[in-house]
Design a protein that fits this description.
Strand order of the largest sheet: 4-15-14-13-10-5-9-7
Bound molecules: pyridoxal-5'-phosphate
Number of domains: 2
CATH topology of the largest domain: Aspartate Aminotransferase, domain 2
Distance between the termini: 15 Å
Largest sheet: 8 strands, mixed
Number of helices: 13
Strand content: 15-25%
Structural class: alpha/beta
Helix content: 25-40%
Mean pLDDT: 97
Radius of gyration: 21 Å
CATH class of the largest domain: Alpha Beta
CATH superfamily of the largest domain: Type I PLP-dependent aspartate aminotransferase-like (Major domain)
Shape: globular
CATH architecture of the largest domain: 3-Layer(aba) Sandwich
């Protein structure tokens, strides 16, 4: 495969952009090689600057459930562009999108639109701390909620204790306010509540997609809900990835648990920078201008982004059959990967939630980040490289989720399975 133009582009980018990329995972550090520079996308495919085509299982890391250049989303964006890019004043569009989201999510009465998932979780936590009157938070090892200071924490020597900053530059003092629990382990959450009497909120990806795909067990989420009620802590479901992806209403498509606050992003923007957080009126009304909790944004509710979001969410609601369809494609893909791996004596764990899929190179089921980390990341890197050479674009880390989009069909999926068979074969032959 020829990547000459990408190699040149990457070198040039590195002269002026840190590491050549504007979000670190794009640099392909954990799989090696040069990231293809993208020229355009269309439907299920990406095209790079050297003219290579790839089946795209990344879909901009989740937002593009209808694939690249969906006609309806494109049309609504173009119409909006002609009316002005930004006003910094309210529009009817924002109300429309808020209503669309509220109508499918139980427990959400009020919404606020923001620009990124990071902003949504950061604001939700501020609000939760204000509502509960308590400063400490619990997060789960392996869950990612964007890059705000309080959330860039991981478990140090063990879970169920105060976190360790996962980035230089985060004040150590903040680690005194973030406790880290173990995913799918309610005892570790109880231990956190023992360790601090000041826990104001628990934030969780109810379908974790940032340690690979690891869904929470329903009983675990139920116990978490009860524990938060008991302790007077706000329960935040971070559905930035899983919302409108795992099902129409994210984890609520799998259980009836109602969190206090929910964060959204990715799909609700249809590919534009847009995110949101919402919850009951009682909590949300603490937000300014009604309450004192400050939160703002010059471009929040941007009309172009919101138009893309409305087109995306409305198209989803008008076509609810996409979820069983995308699920069956995801299952076909992971089953195909598994069969191919078994033929080559490679242990592989797979998982599907709606249009999200994950796979781990290991023999045991994965319930938490510790389990996930036992995966063979070197084998993943090789697999990633072989698949890329065969025109299949997978997320460039073992600890990410893959995405199916509606322009995909069984022929595309079967081509990806064929590529997986060839890749395993090449790996086994040391080629
Ligand atoms: C992507 C993601 C975020 C961060 O969103 P950005 O828009 O990248 O800031 C937060 N939470 C979850 C669960 C995510 O998947």
């Amino acid at each position: 495969m020829n990547l000459l133009h990408s190699i040149n582009d990457f070198n040039e980018a590195k002269q002026v952009i840190v590491g050549g990329v504007n979000s670190p995972v794009r640099a392909f550090k954990s799989v090696g090689g040069t990231p293809p520079f993208i020229f355009k996308g269309k439907g299920a495919y990406l095209y790079d600057v050297d003219g290579n085509a790839y089946i795209d299982f990344v879909q901009s890391w989740g937002p593009l459930i209808f694939g690249h250049c969906d006609g309806d989303i494109e049309k609504s964006v173009l119409e909006a562009v002609q009316k002005g890019l930004s006003f910094g004043a309210p529009t009817e569009l924002e109300t429309t999108l808020a209503k669309e989201i509220i109508s499918v999510y139980e427990g959400i009465e009020k919404i606020r639109l923001v620009n990124s998932g990071t902003e949504a979780t950061m604001s939700a936590i501020r609000l939760a701390r204000a509502y509960s009157g308590k400063d400490d938070i619990i997060k789960f090892d392996g869950c990612y909620h964007g890059h705000s200071d309080s959330l860039l924490m991981h478990a140090g020597s063990g879970c169920a204790t105060f976190g360790v900053c996962s980035s230089p530059g985060v004040p150590k003092a903040l680690s005194q306010h973030t406790l880290i629990a173990k995913y799918n382990d309610i005892d570790s959450v109880r231990a956190c509540f023992e360790a601090s009497k000041n826990i104001g909120c628990v934030i969780i990806e109810p379908i974790a997609g940032n340690m690979g795909l690891v869904p929470a067990k329903i009983e675990f989420l139920q116990a978490l809900r009860e524990l938060c009620n008991q302790k007077g802590a706000v329960l935040i479901f971070d559905e930035v990835m899983s919302g409108f992806r795992a099902s129409l209403n994210g984890v609520q498509g799998y259980c009836e648990i109602v969190p206090d606050l929910v964060t959204f992003g990715k799909v609700i923007g249809g590919g534009m920078p847009l995110a949101a957080f919402g919850g009951s009126d009682t909590i949300m009304r603490l937000l300014s201008p009604l309450g004192g909790v400050y939160q703002a944004g010059t471009l929040s509710g941007n009309p172009i982004a919101v138009s893309a979001g409305i087109a995306s969410v409305c198209k989803i609601k008008q076509n609810p059959q996409i979820y069983p369809h995308l699920t069956s494609l995801a299952q076909r893909l992971t089953q195909g990967f598994q069969d191919a791996a078994r033929m080559h004596d490679i242990p592989l764990q797979t998982c599907v939630r709606g249009s999200m899929f994950g796979f781990f190179f290991q023999k045991d089921p994965v319930y938490n980040f510790q389990d996930a980390q036992k995966s063979d990341t070197q084998l993943f890197a090789l697999f990633h490289q072989k698949m890329l050479e065969r025109g299949v674009y997978l997320a460039c880390s073992q600890f990410e989720t893959g995405f199916i989009c509606t322009p995909m069909d069984i022929y595309i999926i079967d081509r990806a399975i064929q590529a997986a068979q060839e890749s395993f074969e090449a790996i086994k032959q040391g080629a």
